[in-house]
Structures are given as structure tokens and as C-alpha cells.
Amino acid sequence: MAVVETSPGRGEHPPAAELTRSITGRLLFFYVLGDVLGSGIYVLIGSVAGEVGGAFWIAFAAGVSVAAMTGLAYAELATKYPKAAGAALYVNKAFGNRALAFLVTVSFLSASFAAAGSLSIGFARYFLELWDVPPALLVALVFLAALTLINFIGITESVVINMLMTFVEISGLVIVIAIGVWYIATESPDFSRLVEFETSAANPIFAIVAGVALAFFAMTGFENVANVAEETIDPQRAFPRALIGGMVAAGVIYVLVAMVASLVVGSTDLAASDAALLEVVKADVIGLPLGFMTTLFAVIACIAITNTTLVAVVTQPRILYGMAREDVVPGVFAKLHPTRRSPWVGLIFSSLVIATLLVIGTLVVKAGGGIDLIARLATVTVVLLLFIYVLVIAAAFKLGGRDESEQTFRAPRALLGIGLVGNLVLLVYVVVDDPTSLIWCAGLIAVGGVLFALEYLFGRRNRPLSAERGDPSTTSTKEA
Amino acid sequence: MHVLVTTDGSRQSLTAARTFKGFADPTKISDISVIAVIRPLSSVAFADEISDRAELGDADLSFRAEAERAVATVAAEFEGWGPTVHARLRSGSAAGEIIKAAKQLHAGLIVIAAGGRGLGGGVLVGSTAQRVQHYAPCPVLVVRPQPRPNRPRRPRGNRPPNPRT
User: Its topology with respect to the membrane (chain A) (predicted)?
Assistant: First the structure.
């Protein structure tokens, strides 16, 4: 982490110093991998298996491919515009439409809320394998509160902890793969399971699309990479490598894990389990004591989910902060705690939204309305993110040829095209298959709408408290 | 002597710089480095609360630009005072980077604010200031917040205090 310095002559005020960045390509790779890996496979593998049957690894392979093509668009745009705003910035640059950019930002925030909700429940289910006393909802809420506190204190800032957690995440999946290798070597596995479809859908294609739609949740998270875009060293080289490398690595691990789970446990048992990946360990294939292995794996799963949820919990107040700075949500979201320098209002607000989501979701499920809460919130996340991904790829097309330099990464247009079609097909499928998810999406986006309305109606009253804010001029500074 | 003046973009840090300037002898100081640390993995990597607000383009939130402006604002305090003023931006963990910078520059003094008032006064001590005090290779000037005015405020005093020059 080097320094750039400027030394003007005595008495002159210094010219704007150049920032030396601290995120290396390797750190970026682990950031992507850690963020992607935790989000889906531990939580959703059972649901995907239930949709497709033994061949559900195909759903993961297809989901990974579509997501990686989207990742190409992100890599291209992030190298052109290495700013923290991410998708909203790209869409705004491409279409110059502030309303659309606002919708993208709110959708992203909503997707992040839903993802954090789904992950919290996923955490609770693995946690209950360790200590089966408290109700799942309580565990999820305490988990959420703990993450909010951690973020407030600022523990999330440690690059080392981030890396360690990613290694733990990978180790869990390596255990699963190792069990699979052992199983193939010692027992006589029924490989025909890998091509079985046990599905309610008439056509295997639909079964796969349904599976992909869920498996897609496992690949989400990579878009958070924009968080550190500004701080990445040599972004033109680092971004395509880390982003695509991280996603491909995650994809390979996913497909292998899905195959193992299918072979060792079978899709029916996976679908019936609350903590599906744990079933692979519980199948007692290798000779190690089962109790120890179960505990170890449950702990690893909890850490993996924590890592990914943390990124979401860090991202939400950041989005709110950016929006407050643009005066589209109330100015309190731009307030930092004086000692901790964390945006505490945004933090508390975000955790309250997620908690509400969890409570409502649990009540709805209890009342017999709708599907499993994890799958429900995952679907909501996927719908919102697919919408964003479609726009981001479209923005990549629209911005092609603009702001390019020799180092700019240029994604292959054919792949972007396939990615665009893939995202659209999934989006249409999910919405047609599960229209209820749109109600949830609308509810979450309405939260953003309410904040905007509050700022619009009462924003002026806010302004004197934060006297500097709200000046739309983009140039003048005291120094200029 | 090379003095490291730190800023996290808070009014407290500007007050700290002014406090230091208020009693230090510029003829004994050769260089002043104003340093800001951007924390890429935190929710808000850097927030500038001391410069005249120049809103960036709507979707263009840039923590880097915020840090640059905050450093320039603090550096402007020492304009024409004597010592050569440097602007430095680092990225990573705040306390760690400040200590590293102090070592590399063979700093003779680090100036740092101890965090805000409000809840922070008693319960939460600024962890950056605390860690810098513990591990710095040189003396550290920790500028505490000014005492509160007598008028009792709401307990949620999260607003940055008005610095009095």
C-alpha cells in the first residue's frame, strides 16, 4: 500500500493528490469468490434439487454460465468507470435517464435486502444443526443484529478476516468434493442419477430453467465488486481476471459439489432437508466420526453464509449513503457516527427492513401462504438482479466504443448477447412461474419510493441541519 | 521535523489541525503531511464533512474525490504558514496506514482527533486514535473534543460539533 505524494513549494496549497489504491488483483479475486460462494450453494442446493431432480448440476452449470457472461459486462464497465456506484452509474451513463438510474439503485438495494434475508434464514437452519433450541426466526434476527453491530464497529474492514473467511468457505466445499471422490472410489455409485429428471414440469427444459432461476441466486454477489472498484490497483487488468476468474472458479466448485450431492444423497433427500449440504456429510461415507464432521461442516457453512451476508450488510448503508448524497433519500442516511465513522442510520434502517422481511415472511409461511421463505426471498433477489443485469448488459452494448482506451477490457459481444438473452429468458420465466414474487419486489421497491417521497416532501427541512448538502453544482469547491 | 496531520473528513480532525497550528512553532517544522486513509471494505470508505460541499454528478459518488477534498481542506489551513505541505492519500486500515506512514516519513509527531462527542465521548473511544497512540513510532497529539456547551442537548448528539477557530 504505497503512497503518492506531492510536494508543492512552500506556501502554496497542494494540488489534488493522487490516490494509490490498495486492492490487488488477488484480493479482488478472493472478494469475488467469497461473495459468490457463500450465497447459494449452502442455502439453496436442496430447493434446486427439488426442482430438477438428479441432474440438477446442469442447472448450476447453466446458471454459472449466464452469470459469468453478465460478469463480462460488469468487468468491461468497471474498467471503464471504476466507481463505487456500480450498476446505477453504468445505466445512467448509457441511457442518461435519472429515473431509470434511481430504479436500478432501489432495485439493487431491495435485492440486497432480500438476499440478506434469505441468507439469514439459511444461517439459522445450519445453526440449528449445532444447537437446536431457539426458533429459526430468532436465530436469524440475532444473526442480523450481530452483523449490524460488527459493521458498525468496523470489523468488516479487515482484509485479512475477509480472506480467512473465504478460505473457510472453500474448505467446506472441498470437504464435500473429497467425500464425493472417496464415495466414487469405494462404493459403486449410481451415475445414472446425474441425468435423472424428477420434476413436476412436463418438459426437462422447463425443469432446468426453473432450477437455473434458483441456482442463479448462488452466483449473485459478484455485482458487489463495484464496492472496491475505486480502490483496485490497475483495474483494467485486475477486473476481468478477478471477476471472471472468481466466477469460473465458483462455477466449477458448484458443479462438482452438485454432482457429489446428487450421487451421494440423491435429489429427493436433498430437497427434503433443511440444511441440504449437510446431508452429504451425514451420509457417513468416510470413516471420520460423524458427530465431529457434522459439527465442523455446520460451522463452516455458518461462516460461509456470514461472509456473504456481511458484504450485503456493508453494501446497503453505502447505497443509502450515495442516495442521500444525491438528495433522493433523506439526508440522515449520509450521517456518520462521529467516532466510528459508520453510517449508523443506514445500518439500523437496513437491518430493520430485513428483520421486517423475515417476520412477515415467517408469518406468511405459517399462514400457509406460499413457498419456503428461503426460496421466496431468493426468487425476489433473482428477479431484481436479473432486471439489473439485463440493463447492465444493455448499457455495455450502448457504451461500446465510448470512453475506451487501449487498456479497456472489451467483452466479446457474442457472449454479451447470449448473456442478455439468458437473463431475459430467466427473468420472464421467474415472473411467469411465480408472479407472487413481484408483489414482494414491489413492496421492497416501495420502501425506496417512500424514502424518496420523504426527502421530496421534507427534504428542505433536512437541509439546514446538514447545511452543505443539496447543492447540485458539480464543479466548484472551496479550493477551485 | 516532519509532522503528520491526519484527517478522516470529520470536523474534529479539522479542529485538531487548527489546535496544533495554534501552538506549534512553524520554524521548527520542516514538513507537514496531511494524510487521509480510505477504507475500501467499509460501508462508507471516506466521507468529507469539512469542505464546501461540491456535489459530484448524481451517480458519481467517489470516495477518492471525498478524501482528496478533505485533505486539500486541511492542507489549506497550513497555507503560507511556513513548512512544506504534502497531501497524502492511503488506502487500507486507518490506524495501520497512519502508523506505516509515520514510520516511512520518520515523522516527529502525529496529530489526530479522538473522535466525536455524543455517545462516543464516554462509551466508545475512537479506536483509530487509540491504536495510533499505542503503536506510533513518535509522539502523538490527540485532540479531544471541546467540552459541550452548558445547554443540554438531546442525548443523540450525532452532529459534528462546530469547530471554533
Answer: Multi-pass membrane protein
